[in-house]
Amino acid sequence: MDRREFLKRAAALSLVAGAGRLLVMPEELWAMAPESKPQPLIAKAEGTKWDQVTGEAIQKLGGMKKFVQPGETVVVKPNMAWDRTPELAANAHPDVVRMVVELCLDAGAKQVKVLDHTCHDARKAYKNSGIQDAVLSLKDPRAVVEFVDERRFVKVKTEKAKSLKEWLYYKDILEADRFINIPVAKHHSESRLTLCLKNMMGAIGGWRGRCHVGLHQNIADMNLVLRPDLHVLDCTRILLRNGPTGGNVADVAVKNLVCAGTDPVALDAFACTLFGLKPTDVGYIQRAYALGRGEMDLAKIKFV
């Protein structure tokens, strides 16, 4: 079942259980999912024109119209958490984000919201990442860059979670017709790497410092709730050291690569190889795999 159907069924079960304003994702919900899963597919595209490379990767999956239908509302969540310029590789590259938004608009989206729950001051992070200006350069009123409203986080209870059983999640993401994740591949001082799964930290509220206690399991748990329809992993340049903030171009390696897919575990497993690591070297990848969020065995992943 897709993300929207998953959340609709969760909401229906919550009402039946009398949960009120608390969205509950009970164990029965996972029993509704099909037992057999298709082979994970990762689309890779390489080149120096990063907007075109992004489009090529998505096209290899069948194009954006496979993911976004006319009249739908889309939330795009790039990593733009840091007050850093694009060459420092702390945020998703603006060319990658702009292309994703443009393709959503071309597919007929009613509205495309671009947002992130930042770590640095949001006004500075949005501006200096280059993402805000890149999206606005499309000059399409359907494309908006929004600051996160702290009042719009809602509690979600996840019974299958091992650690993060109840937390605050951004309502706009939960209610969107489509949700697209655009992380940048980089080193992280606490989780070792930050990729697709870890980028969901920018979609939760509350005191996020609490999530750093048992971080790897918490990342896996939040990905039970947050299920993007599409992941576009920005590997145009990667941050090898001193992440997640970076700040020195000497820590950056240019890869000229964009990967896209629907399986965040598979994408993260592959991205480990760009850093000379194995998927088993990153705890949250193993834990997300154990929760059934995707495939971490590279031999079982199809690349196109």
Detailed description of the structure:
This protein has 304 residues and is of the alpha/beta class. The chain has two domains: 1-33, no CATH class; 40-303, Rossmann fold. Helix content is 29%, strand content 22%. It has ten helices and 13 strands. The protein has helices at residues 3-16, 27-31, 50-60, 94-106, 122-128, 131-136, 171-175, 215-225, 264-272, 283-290; strands at 23-25, 41-46, 73-78, 111-114, 143-145, 153-158, 166-170, 178-182, 184-188, 192-194, 230-239, 252-261, 302-303. The strands form two sheets. Strands 2, 3, 4, 5, 8, 9, 10, 11, 12 and 13 form a ten-stranded mixed sheet that branches. Strands 1-6-7 form a three-stranded mixed sheet. Strand 9 and strand 10 form a beta hairpin. Helix 3 packs across helix 4 (94-106). It is globular. The mean pLDDT is 92.
Features:
single chain; 304 residues; alpha/beta; Rossmann fold; 2 domains; three-stranded mixed sheet; 13 strands; globular
Q: What is the total number of structural domains?
A: 2
The profile of the biggest β sheet is: 10 strands, mixed
Count, helices: 10
Order of helices and strands: HEHEHEHEHHEEEHEEEHEEHHE
Named CATH topology of the largest domain: Rossmann fold
Query: How many extended strands?
Result: 13
- Percentage of β-strand residues: 15-25%
What percentage of residues falls in helices of 4 or more residues? 25-40%
Q: What name goes with the CATH superfamily of the largest domain?
A: LarA, N-terminal domain
Mean pLDDT: 92
Structural class: alpha/beta
As a whole number of angstroms, the C-alpha radius of gyration is: 18 Å
- Low-pLDDT regions: none
Q: What CATH first level of the largest domain would be assigned? A: Alpha Beta
Dominant shape = globular
Subcellular location: Cell envelope
GO molecular function: iron-sulfur cluster binding
Main location: other
GO cellular component, one term: cell envelope
